[in-house]
Amino acid sequence: MNLFFGEHPSKWNIALSLLTGLILAGVAVMLQEPLGWNGIVTAVLAADIGAGLISNASKETNDAWKNESRSRQWVFVIFHLTVYPAAIILLSQSAVVTILLVGLLVVKTGLFYSRVISTAR
Question: Does the pTM of the predicted model rise above 0.85?
Answer without folding.
Answer: yes
